[in-house]
Amino acid sequence: MTTIDINGIEMYFEERGQGEPLVLLHGFTGAGADWQHVYDLDELAGRWRLIVPDLRGHGRSSNPGGVFTHAQCARDVTALLDHLGVARFRAVGMSLGGNTLLHMASRQPDRAAAMVLVSATMHYPAQARAIMRQMTEEGRSPAEWAEMRGRHAHGDDQIRTLWRNARAFADDHEDMAFTPPRLATITTPTLIVYGDRDPLYPVEMAVDMYRAIPNASLCVVPGGGHGPIFAGDARTSFVRTSLAFLAS
User: Fold this and answer.
1) Domain 2-247 has what CATH class?
2) Mean pLDDT confidence for 107-111
3) Tens digits of per-residue pLDDT, 140-153?
4) I need a surface site. Which of 29, 50, 147, 232 has the fewest CB within 10 A?
């Protein structure tokens, strides 16, 4: 567990295990520690060199400027891997993490050996933008504040900034703007995982990405919402499927 200075921020990350590097990238308003609710990290560390960062402005990582884009997150993670001497890696990204991997894989097609994208998106459809505009701190319950405070170490201003960043996504048309021709430049073997009841991104978008990215595979979770990998049979199936894909 350590913090390093990268691209004007202090980025916190955890690293353990040996073997080929496996990068785990969390979702928006989440933190690297969320992966303990999906994988047995001790078991993974027996097979992989785990690299689990808190992305810009999340968890224990700072974001002094307050501005947030997935493209900048991709530059941050790339700089972290450069710092660690990681030339080639495998990765799993959840929502924000998956969007970050799309940026990374389209910029450096040969660097990722394989990646799993959970609830990632090509762009923000109207239904997602409507939800993003509702991401305010007003009306948040004590339980919601407690959950966020348990994840984010830099106080309530950090949490308010994250919700403000989410609202800003609603009017952004440049950060996540992947067309099929751009996705076609991605050569990384890619597993796309979607819930067929995702309120943000319709499952048709997963099919579009599957068709556009060469060497892509598609896994749809029946009845699954956004990030459908954290509980019950869906979690068990995802762990089995994702690890088999990464190892193949």
Assistant:
1) alpha beta
2) 93
3) 999 999 999 999 99
4) 232
